[in-house]
Specification:
Radius of gyration: 25 Å
CATH class of the largest domain: Mainly Alpha
Mean pLDDT: 78
CATH topology of the largest domain: Tetracycline Repressor, domain 2
Strand content: under 5%
Low-confidence stretches: 125-143, 145-178, 251-256, 270-279
CATH architecture of the largest domain: Orthogonal Bundle
Number of helices: 14
Oligomer: single chain
Order of helices and strands: HHHHHHHHHHHHHH
Structural class: mainly alpha
Largest sheet: none
CATH superfamily of the largest domain: Tetracycline Repressor, domain 2
């Protein structure tokens, strides 16, 4: 290993140590407790050393947001292969809420602390790559992005207004975030519309924002409101998803009724004449 390569690896290792220490502080004490001095004490370096890697606490926060969002996207990966778009959206919603409940401080930091942190997360593939040596960027370009990229070749088949409407998350950001999670939702909603399961006039991008707002509201209330929910969280989530996509039991009944009618009709058909038997 050459000297330059060793120095690069050492710098990357120290950067990762800084972010790991910052993450531990945020998880343990909340973002308000995070400071450059506290991070420096945790890794036994001077605060001046940290400024060689990060210009400010906010820059560290943005890197943590990019890492956390890459982790959220990774939880979506197996769901991208679900064939039925409504079930895919149900899975995405459950994974989103599960992430927020399991990682409350990270969720607060990404979605509830500062709008600029959210912008860094949504467009933060490069930040995540810097923070984790490329692994997070690989996650962000895994099956979730692969599915979107495959579908991008068929954009001409989609209704106007549904193409890569990822800026709908944060239109004021002034850039196309390329957010895989929003594109995945938009595509699923457009599939429902194409199948006649949503009104033809429905705008997939707008509906995706509304679905995201529903899930964010559930997570945010769970994190901040002591009296919410008064029933198990899964019950609230089930009610929200049923309101969006219809109860599974109702769909099962609707599917079973035509099949039962077909069986009944077959039962009413005249019996076939017996075949003649050769003498």
């Amino acid at each position: 290993m050459g000297i330059n390569e060793r120095k690069t690896r050492e710098k990357q290792a120290l950067r990762e140590r800084i972010l790991e220490a910052a993450q531990r502080i945020v998880i343990r004490e909340g973002f308000a407790a995070l400071s450059m001095r506290k991070i420096a004490d945790a890794i036994e370096y001077s605060p001046a050393t940290l400024y060689l890697y990060f210009a400010s606490r906010d820059e560290i926060a943005r890197a943590l947001c990019a890492q956390g969002y890459a982790q959220l996207l990774a939880s979506f990966e197996p769901l991208a292969q679900i064939a039925d778009p409504a079930e895919r959206l149900r899975g995405l919603a459950r994974a989103y809420v599960a992430f927020g409940v399991a990682h409350p401080q990270t969720y607060r930091l990404i979605f509830m602390e500062d709008p600029t942190y959210l912008g860094a997360a949504l467009g933060g593939a490069s930040e995540a790559e810097k923070a984790s040596g490329g692994e997070a960027n690989h996650q962000a370009n895994s099956p979730v992005d692969d599915r979107v990229d495959r579908q991008a070749g068929h954009q001409g088949d989609k209704p106007a207004g549904s193409e890569r409407d990822t800026q709908v998350i944060n239109p004021a950001a002034g850039h196309d975030s390329g957010d895989a999670s929003m594109r995945l939702m938009v595509d699923a909603l457009d599939e429902l519309r194409a199948a006649g399961r949503l009104p033809a006039s429905a705008d997939g991008a707008v509906l995706a924002q509304a679905l995201w707002a529903t899930m964010h509201g559930i997570v945010a209330l769970n994190l901040t409101c002591p009296v919410f929910p008064t029933v198990p969280l899964d019950t609230v989530l089930d009610a929200a998803l049923d309101a969006w996509f219809g109860a599974r039991r109702q769909r099962a009944v609707a599917t079973a009724e035509p099949a039962a009618a077909a069986r009944s009709a077959r039962g009413r058909r005249p019996a076939a004449k017996p075949k003649a038997v050769d003498a």
